[in-house]
Amino acid sequence: MSTHARPLAVWLAQAPDAQLAALFEARGVRADVAWSDFFDAAEALLEPASIERALPRLPLTEAVALRRSVNGDDAGDDAGPLIALALLRPDGTPAPPVAEAVTARQDPTASETPPPEPSDESAAARAAERAFTTVAALADLVLLASDTPLALLTGGALASGEKRRIAATGTAPETLDDLAAIAVDAGLLAALDRRLVATESADSWLRESASARWTGLVQAFRAALPRGLRDGDGWLPTTAWAAQYPWSTAWPEQCSAIAERARLLGLIADDGSEPEWAVPLREGAPADPASLQRMLPTEVDRIFLQNDLTAIAPGPLQPALDVRLRRIAVRESAAQASSYRFTADSVAQALTSGETAASILDFLAEISLTGIPQPLEYLVTQTDQRHGLVRVFTDASGRTRVASVDATLLDAMGVDQALRPLALARDADGLTSRAGRDTVYWTLTDARYPAMIVGDDGRPLVVDRNPAPGHAPPAAPDYLPLIARLRERQGPDADAAWLDRELEAAVRSKAVLLVEIEMPDGTARELQLEASGLGGGRLRGRDRAADVERTLPVRSIRSARVIDPSAGSGATATGER
């Protein structure tokens, strides 16, 4: 048992619950760890493995301060965070296990880094174009995740199949993981059960202008930066980022990924210079997209509708219009001028999501420069007439029922092999299934049957296949039960508790103790005792000098020190009452 743990255990016992929870979370302590008291907690936090996990998480300034403290100097203003991490004692000195771990590492050095050079007009233009491309690619990614959640690998990266599918939209596959990380930081996507899903805030973001979309992304990017890169409310010059976690072997790769996301967002130019619009963000001010907006292409609010069931946007379509149009048509190409194609399936999907023939035609008439061609009007009205031919609802018995005025269609569904999992049974009123209503509906929709869900009143219901979760930060581990358990074992006399632990450790290791006993007359006597047992408030062992077995009341023991650790497991700690 280590005597270095005793001061830390006393400090932990006196710390507020919130401070303990923050410490445990920062040190990566599991909420279900099997500690019985604060001495266990202190010893675990001072274990070499725990210290080795904590040191790579220190930013440069704290690493330098810890090294100064190990060298006997004052840690300065950074002593507070290091004490809160249990890497320094309250007096600002390191425990020997921490000193040993720090001494074994390379000395970190801090130096002043000047701000990056401002971008020239050419570099800024390329950065603005990249930012515009990134915002558009993120919108595509969020829309895809809204329709169908994206599969993730165990490590959190997008699955290769998803990358191939997304790359078909024109996004470079090598940027997809960075784009997904930007979207997660902005709260547009969330990882749930190894799937990437769109959140509730994604829809409102999709309908904002390009500059407003960019503003939300870069401010979220700044808020998610590691604390070692932060400078107040802003960030350190990007040229200083690589040196900010000197003891982390994983940092070079992480830093490269963060810098690439900054480049994708147009915050860093290709030559490492800084565009004008990145300066307020670095200095901690709100984002100002005005200088960026001047370099972005002008958004349009009108399209050309053509007889071949396509639509052409003569420039970047306003995001709100683009999002709604893509709910009705399939986008075939994305560039300065985008093209869209209307199909029976795309119109049916719009009807399923709550549109009507009238709302679709009114919307298209409002944004069209060429009116509505007759073939497109015919496609919308015919699809609307067929939509809802199959009605799915729950009857009074709780079973799912499928009804239609078209008996031939019901017969076809009854023998369709694609619908076998539903186990549809025919009766006089239609088809029934033991599967849930939503399951039946989406299976029929996937099989391209014109189905709709209706409520008890017979009115159509709009059902979201992939309901968006609300955006919330990851839940912090709940350390309250652990802290409560530690406090339950916290006695009023820390010295006595520590002595009990020392004696228990000596008994387990069969060590030889130099025990100081308080005699009835108030004098003290020392005994060399080979500890053999502890119980009932008494310590048992063989007195080496007299070669007899002795039983000593623990309350009479003033102190106990291991003098022959080789006799047992090597315990070297001391204890005093």
From TrEMBL:
The keyword Protein transport does not apply. InterPro entries: XPB/Ssl2_N. GO terms for molecular function: helicase activity. Pfam families: Helicase_C_3 (PF13625). Residues 95-126 are annotated as: Disordered. Keywords: ATP-binding, Helicase, Hydrolase, Nucleotide-binding. Residues 304-426 form the Helicase XPB/Ssl2 N-terminal domain. This is Helicase-associated domain-containing protein. Residues 98-112 have a biased composition (Low complexity).
